[in-house]
Design brief:
binds iron/sulfur cluster; DNA Cyclobutane Dipyrimidine Photolyase, subunit A, domain 3; Rossmann fold; 7 strands; two-stranded antiparallel ribbon; binds ligand DLZ; Serine Threonine Protein Phosphatase 5, Tetratricopeptide repeat; single chain; 3 domains
Length: 516
């Protein structure tokens, strides 16, 4: 029987951290934790089965960890006859306790539900202290600024944490070494991230997920993610020892025979709380001081975590809920079928990116931004549909991080808040950064004709239809000059080629369909 003076703490599926604010200062003997695998959270979008398995298994392991520390844990394993949502689970127990606590969550939708718990159960909602910048700090930083440049925010975070600092100056005399991080990779295929054998807890989760969510897009097995802090730490150590040294140089590279290259995959672990972002950055910094990696690798990694990751979270909470509806480029096209079925396209870059996503619930940032993202931008895919896709298919996707990345970075739907210009690129960019084009039936050097890379004509179609928005942008002016100088017949042929492609995408084309 719980003691009616005790505290009930609700721990969510991405709050699997020892230093969680809702658990801080509580005595295990007087604290009960409630965790629940519920269909409302697993199906508000159709998450990739690997993502559901990751979260359920990591939740079960975290529950065991808490029990090991002496906490009582009420745990609902997924059961269609069990509580359908978190409120139902909480309603069954809240009355037995004097207090209910929960750490704020990472989504507007669920945060409204948590607020409801405040009214109904007197639940206290605590700040999520696992982030480096508080939301108030971010709001104060953003206040009165016309443009929110990540770079300036990032410098403040460097100063605040002391990471890679020499007094008030950045180590190396420069804040950002991104210009060094764009090399194509031609070395041998890499070993990739560390993989873990599923234990009996994970095996049981896999059976549950297969039974109830096996119809969602994506492959459940082989499942190899870390599901405990110890294993996530081991994965980080593996990254530091084998990948970090080359991470920076080849951060934007793409390879047909190597899905991972030097990417750590630790976002999957950090975003559910198995790794602490600041501790992780300190380990990466230590690797630099130990001579294991160059500054461009270490700075690039740390910027992603204390700069970009914190910055997108700040934007999300500053701009929600209106943010989710933004569609600055008035893009309305449905996402093509091949985002769920890589056999339905011959565009090799898209095929590889979707295949990897299907197999692993992961792809690296340049595939997300410059392949699936760029193509969606060029065809004018609806940012809402695209956001939903990213949220569903990636194991590290939670709305606070996914939405600004998709709306701001990928679709330029937020009117230039995150980046002043869209990241539109033709097939030439993709062919420069890797070897996908060598394995493609299309030719990235050709703009028109049956074997022309579709990205090329789509790129010019995009530029042409948005000329009124971007022609005066200083960093796009050169491309608009090229467009202006192009012979009218060439322009016409490019637009006609893209129009025909788009008509085929929309299913309006009466000609026999080849794979696109
Ligand atoms: C994403 C997810 C999934 C698939 N399942 C659960 C669940 O069963 N129980 C739970 O507490 N949380 C789950 N989550 C995470 C939440 O949906 C939500 O995205 C985060 O808690 C937001 O911070
Ligand atoms: Fe992608 Fe075009 Fe290259 Fe094919 S040729 S892989 S479609 S960029």
């Amino acid at each position: 029987m719980p003691n009616p003076r005790d505290t009930l703490v609700v721990v969510l599926g991405d709050q699997l951290s020892d230093n969680l604010s809702s658990l801080a200062g509580l005595t295990p003997a007087h604290t009960t934790v409630l965790m629940a695998e519920v269909s409302a959270e697993a199906t508000y979008v159709n998450h990739h089965p690997k993502k559901i398995a990751l979260i359920f298994s990591a939740m079960r392991h975290f529950a065991a960890r808490l029990r090991g520390k002496g906490f009582e844990v009420i745990y609902y394993e997924f059961d269609p006859a069990g509580p359908a949502d978190l409120t139902e689970a909480l309603a069954r127990h809240a009355g037995d306790f004097a207090r209910v606590r929960v750490t704020e969550c990472g989504e507007w939708r669920l945060q409204q539900i948590l607020r409801g718990w405040g009214e109904r159960f007197g639940a206290v909602i605590l700040d999520d202290t696992r982030f480096i910048a508080t939301l108030d700090e971010f709001a104060a930083w953003a206040d009165g600024r016309k443009q929110l440049r990540m770079e300036y925010f990032y410098r403040d975070q460097r100063r605040k944490t002391g990471l890679l600092m020499n007094g008030d100056e950045p180590i190396g005399g420069q804040w950002n070494f991104d210009a060094d991080n764009r090399k194509a990779y031609t070395g041998p295929a890499t070993a990739g991230p560390m993989r873990f054998e599923p234990d009996p807890i994970t095996q049981s989760v896999l059976d549950t997920v297969e039974k109830h969510f096996g119809h969602h897009f994506g492959e459940l097995r082989p499942f190899w993610f870390a599901v405990t802090t110890e294993d996530a730490e081991a994965a980080l150590t593996h990254f530091l020892d084998t990948q970090l040294a080359s991470f920076g140089d080849y951060q934007d590279a793409m390879r047909q025979d190597d899905d991972w290259m030097f990417h750590s995959v630790v976002s999957v672990y950090v975003n559910i709380g198995l790794l602490d972002p600041l501790d992780m950055c300190r380990r990466v910094e230590a690797a630099y001081h130990a001579g294991l990696a160059k500054l461009n690798s270490v700075e690039g990694f740390i910027r992603q975590v204390i700069g970009w990751r914190e910055y997108v979270r700040g934007i999300y909470w500053l701009k929600m809920p209106e943010y989710a509806d933004m569609n600055g480029l008035e893009a309305e096209r449905a996402l093509p079928d091949f985002y769920w079925d890589d056999s339905k396209t011959d565009m090799n870059c898209i095929k590889q990116a979707v295949r990897l996503t299907r197999e692993e619930a992961w792809s690296h940032h340049i595939l997300r931004l410059m392949v699936t993202g760029n193509f969606a931008l060029l065809i004018g895919a609806s940012p809402k549909a695209l956001s939903q896709w990213y949220l569903e298919v990636y194991a590290d996707a939670f709305e606070w991080v996914e939405l600004p990345n998709v709306l701001g970075m990928v679709s330029h739907a937020d009117g230039g808040y995150l980046g002043s210009k869209p990241y539109a690129a033709s097939g030439k960019y993709i062919s420069r950064q890797g070897d996908y084009c060598k394995h493609c039936r299309f030719n990235p050097k050709k703009d028109v004709g049956p074997d022309a890379c579709p990205m090329n004509s789509l790129y010019w179609h995009f530029m042409d239809r948005h000329a009124h928005r971007f022609a005066k942008h200083p960093r796009m002016a050169m491309m608009y000059r090229t467009w202006a100088k192009m012979a009218p017949e060439k322009k016409h042929a490019l637009i006609a080629q893209a129009d025909q492609f788009l008509a085929r995408l929309d299913g309006d084309d009466v000609q026999p369909l080849e794979l696109i």
